[in-house]
Amino acid sequence: MIHIPFQLHSIRSRMLSGFLFLTGLLVALAVFSVVMLDRTRKISDIHAEISQLQVYTLNLIKTDNDFFDVGTAHEAYFQTHQSPFLQRRDSLVKKIDYAFRLVTSQTLAEDYPVDDNLTAIDSTFRLYNDEFGQLEQLLFLRGFRDYGLEGSMRTHAHALENGTLGLDMVTLLSLRRNEKDFFLRHDTLYIRQFNTLANRARKQLLADSARFAQGLYELTQYQLRFNQLAGINQQIGLSSLTGMRATLNHLTGQLSQRYIALADESLQLSTAAILNIRVFYLVLMVGAVVFTVLSGFWISKRLSSPIARLSKLIHKALRHKRKQRINLELPHAATEINDLVRSFNQLMEQTNRQVSEIEEKSKLLKKRNKDLKKLNHELDSFLYSTAHDLRSPLSSLMGLLQLAERDNKQPEMAIYFGMMRTSIQRQEDFIQQIVSYSKNNKLTLQIEKIALEALLRDVLESHKYMPEAERILVWVDIREETPLFSDKNRLVTLFNNLISNAIRYADGQKEKQWIRITGRVTAEEAFIEFADNGIGIEPDHLHRIFDMFYRANLSSKGSGLGLFIFRETIQKLKGHVSVESRPKEGTKFTLRLPNHVATEHPQLPLESLTMKVAG
């Protein structure tokens, strides 16, 4: 083993010192990265716990509604004062209490500033829970059929049907009718009418109280139970806008609003933490680049001279195709340079052997290239098959959603069905855009004669059922001096993207919303302008709207693929596009597409997209 002594000015020492410095820097950055990542992970965990807490609360509210709608109509509940809904509710309350304690402890430990919202939610939840308990006690006291006050009232009412108790059947039937009308219609007029009839009947029975003492007792108890039931119903609420039901609905709305505020605040904090990580890694990358540049300059300055001499000799040997070994010893050169000379000589000896090997491997490469083309073809087939298989369950989901909407009897579920419908449609659009992108890349241009204005009107017709489309005025003015020859399917893709975006991002606050399409077709090109008075695009986002998956803001309705596919399609057609936009004023896309008059089936190369960004 050859021992190489350590020298202060050798490549080895300089590289070692630089490596040690870089290692120390990387260790420090790694420790700081772990701390930052752990902080971000904990913030994400808190955000997830808050979302779980919201889910528990929504399940609790749904369980309470199910109890009011279903549980209070079962006699088993009034027999045992037990219900599966109440048992599930107790379990959810325990989970919510535990989640509150967990989230509160985590926010305090991580100094996560959402304490005010958590405290407000906890206070509102406790009020809601107390209000529910009182309402449940009233419902149990009210009873059902043969149980509770309702059962007692019916018992006394049925006792009065005995004709020997002195109450005539007409009066009793009138009392029962007012009783039932009140419970069905919730009108206090029937309470007054009931009591008027009952008091009149009592006077009649009091006239001969000794004979009709039992009837007087049953009538009195019947009237007492009815009034008690009426009072409980009024306390519970004769409608969703009165009584304890209104209070419970109000608290439910407060909980929903507070959870929305908490979720928004938590999302902002989580996003800020992720942004900090990105900034940190950006600074890290800049620092690494600067260090690399400085280190490279420092080392190259000391190595450039002997390496330059070695390079000249090597190039000279290569130009003259020398086969002999190079005997080169550079004075004051590092040991590594001499090792390089020896390595070069070995490399030259291996070159001849490798040339023959390359010829053999080139044949193998051709074969593998053929296999790769076949694999690409199979990959395209897989893409189309996968798109079809993905669409089938989405279509089934849409059908099931329509059935659920038709059978839905809970108005509050309509908003969730709408969200589900939007998500399914967005997924279908996303799959269609991926297939369109693949087709645009793989298929060659299919040139045919096109009536441009008629094609535009057909595309507009296909979008007239989009939401808000009927409120938008559309003008089309195309001067066709000569027929346009281009790829019809790709033109439809371009126009679909522009028109759907113009409708989707129309400014609903404007009284008049419009889209204006003008153009001119010459023998050289088609010049088309798409202008609208929609919400426009912020200048900071305008230069990135054609990037894949880029969306200008979180409220964007698309997948971020539409304008990317638009750009790829323009390139395939050898066209150009420029875009001008001002926020709150509108957007204008200007297209220039070549007219392939003398070409039947061209194979066109891709051409870069030019854009003009207006402030």
Written overview of the protein:
With 615 residues, this protein is an alpha+beta fold. It folds into 4 domains: 32-140 and 244-282, Four Helix Bundle (Hemerythrin (Met), subunit A) (Up-down Bundle); 148-239; 356-442; 443-594, Histidine kinase-like ATPase, C-terminal domain (Heat Shock Protein 90), CATH 3.30.565.10. The protein has helices at residues 11-69, 75-80, 84-109, 115-142, 148-159, 169-185, 189-206, 213-236, 243-319, 335-407, 414-442, 452-462, 488-504, 539-542, 562-572; strands at 447-450, 472-480, 484-487, 513-521, 525-532, 576-582, 586-594.
Task: List key phrases describing it.
615 residues; alpha+beta; Four Helix Bundle (Hemerythrin (Met), subunit A); 4 domains; 5-stranded mixed sheet; 15 helices; 67% helix; 8% strand
Secondary-structure-based class equals alpha+beta
CATH architecture call of the largest domain:
2-Layer Sandwich
What's the domain count?
4
Put simply, the count of helices is 15
Quickly describe the structure.
The protein is an alpha+beta fold.
Secondary-structure topology with pairs:
Elements (H helix, E strand, L loop, with lengths): L10 H59 L5 H6 L3 H26 L5 H28 L5 H12 L9 H17 L3 H18 L6 H24 L6 H77 L15 H73 L6 H29 L4 E4 L1 H11 L9 E9 L3 E4 H17 L8 E9 L3 E8 L6 H4 L19 H11 L3 E7 L3 E9 L21
Parallel strand pairs: 2-4
Antiparallel strand pairs: 1-3, 4-5, 5-7, 6-7
Helix pairs in contact: 1-3, 1-9, 4-8, 4-9, 5-8, 6-7, 7-8, 10-11, 11-15, 12-13, 13-15
